[in-house]
């Protein structure tokens, strides 16, 4: 099996992922190179040149459930199918029977993307100053 190596060091990738999320994802928690590198998540990246322009992550939360999160594409690279590609890549990696996402209720593009992948409404809660919607689906649909 082939192995691939990048000229970008892991710290640089992690810093770019943290910057992308902090600048464009309306998160209440700010990320750093350390929070990304220390995460148990699998990250899926879209890279243009030496810049991370999109990311998505998954983390297995037990034998039955995986969480998808941190789907973000830099505004200059949106509407090119990158989010859809990252979503599919991360879904293909899921090893549990079920997967879920949480999305701000004002993030219509992300909600629509997830609905297009067969996710269904699970729950809606108030968090800080906005509603958060949980969507889920079986992994093999």
Structure commentary:
The chain has 141 residues and is an alpha+beta fold. 29% of the residues lie in helices and 35% in strands. The chain has a single domain, classed as 3-Layer(aba) Sandwich (Aminopeptidase), CATH 3.40.630.30. The protein contains 4 helices and 6 strands.
Secondary structure class reads alpha+beta
Uncertain runs with pLDDT below 50, 5 residues or more? none
| Beta-strand percentage range | 35-45%
Query: Major β-sheet, in short?
Result: 6 strands, mixed
- Provide the succession of SSEs: HHEEEHEHEE
**Major β-sheet strand ordering:** 1-2-3-4-6-5
Which overall shape is indicated by the principal axes computed on the Cα atoms? globular
If helices are DSSP runs of H or I spanning 4 or more residues, what is the number of helices?
4
List keywords for this structure.
4 helices; 6-stranded mixed sheet; 141 residues; globular; Aminopeptidase; 6 strands; single chain
Summarize the structure.
By secondary structure, the chain is an alpha+beta fold. It has helices spanning 10-24, 33-37, 82-93, 108-116, and strands at 42-48, 51-60, 65-73, 98-104, 120-127, 130-138.
